[in-house]
Amino acid sequence: MIAPLIDSFGRVHDNLRISVTDRCNIRCFYCMPEEGAQYMDRAEILTFEEIERFVRAAVPLGITKLRLTGGEPLLRRDLPLLIERLAAIPGIRDIALTTNAVLLGKHAADLYGAGLRRLNIHLDTLDRARFEQITRRDDLTKVLAGIDAAVDAGFENIKLNIVAVKGLVEPDIVPMALYCRERGFEPRYIEFMPLDAQSLWGRSRVLTADEIIAVVSREVAPLRAVPDADPRAPATEYEYSDGGGRVGFIASVSKPFCMNCNRIRLTSDGKLRYCLFAIEETDVRGLLRSDASNEEIVAVIRGNVAAKWVGHEINSPQFVAPPRPMYSIGG
Ligand code: SAM
Ligand code: SF4
């Protein structure tokens, strides 16, 4: 192995998030505009061969964990084939997928068959009207069927991503916690981040991890911090003191965890980003579409990580939201 991917703050990077599409079949207001989403041309999107080539170049740098995301990754045709190809790369130890589950009913068995074992499913509410209000689509039934299909296919330790927007999801905190507890899923409450397409974010719209911990502890069962949790994981892990499972919190706004960051991101059009909130990005598609050597790709990855900043500045007055919204970066 060559020297690992360490930035100028000593953070070691072993985790790559790959966006496989910027398209989506629903329209969550904190991510996409209701109308007129600007999608990339298909020719701009990396092919499976190009993604595989990038990952093969990145593995010797210490990348061992992948997460496929989007847009909605299940809109990418033949996704299980990509998973098979990535799982076959020596050195890749873990592949996860983040999905809205609308199409999971169709694809769960094939994804499992391709070797996928880790699923994060995005679902904020069990209430049909609120689901439609958030996503501007009436697809809750499909999502719930998709979750059932994933369980039937054999997926375990499913995590549910819940975006915590103040003034909206308070009525869902407890029902979602109970649903997860009954089914053996881990809810992950994610603080609303300034990555929406319509500049709707404001600090007053962030429901913080501490507020949610207080509600769940009071109304479901007492929570305590997991003592031996992985400090480099983005979620702060809690567990029910009665043994009823775990609850995760991604407190990007109220308790930024940038100093533990081990992630880089590849957008669907082949830009490398050292941070979700990065303003600058590095093109790798040009290299992947040329006869560039692995050494050249490695040099570009190293250069991007070397330029990594200390962290996002959501909490400072000089914060500037990135030019791409969440669906175009890959969450
Ligand atoms: N479409 C898939 C999905 O929704 O899970 C994958 C892509 S989506 C961009 C990845 C995750 O980003 C979602 O699960 C959701 O929890 C999160 N997300 C989207 N917009 C967000 C925002 N403005 N703040 C915090 N989390 C957000
Ligand atoms: Fe689509 Fe996921 Fe964005 Fe919702 S959060 S609009 S499901 S990409």
Quote the beta fraction. 15-25%
Structure class: alpha/beta
Named CATH topology: TIM Barrel
- In CATH, the homologous superfamily goes by the name Aldolase class I
Poorly predicted parts: none
Shape: globular
Topology summary:
Blueprint: E1 15-19, H1 48-58, E2 65-69, H2 79-87, E3 94-99, H3 104-113, E4 118-122, H4 128-135, H5 140-153, E5 159-164, H6 170-183, E6 186-191, H7 209-219, E7 223-225, E8 236-240, E9 246-250, E10 263-266, E11 271-273, E12 282-283, H8 285-288, H9 294-306, H10 326-329
Parallel strand pairs: 1-2, 1-10, 2-3, 3-4, 4-5, 5-6, 6-9
Antiparallel strand pairs: 7-8, 8-9, 10-11, 11-12
Helix pairs in contact: 3-5, 6-7
This protein binds S-adenosylmethionine (SAM) and iron/sulfur cluster.
What does this structure look like?
The chain contains 10 helices and 12 strands. The protein has 331 residues and is an alpha/beta fold. It has a single domain, classed as Alpha-Beta Barrel (TIM Barrel), CATH 3.20.20. It has a 12-stranded mixed beta sheet with strand order 7-8-9-6-5-4-3-2-1-10-11-12. Strand 2 (65-69), helix 2 (79-87) and strand 3 form a beta-alpha-beta unit. The longest helix is centred in the middle third of the chain and has 14 residues, at 140-153. The mean pLDDT is 94. It binds S-adenosylmethionine (SAM) and iron/sulfur cluster (SF4). Iron/sulfur cluster is lined by residues 24, 26-28, 31-32, 70-72, 100, 122, 326-327.
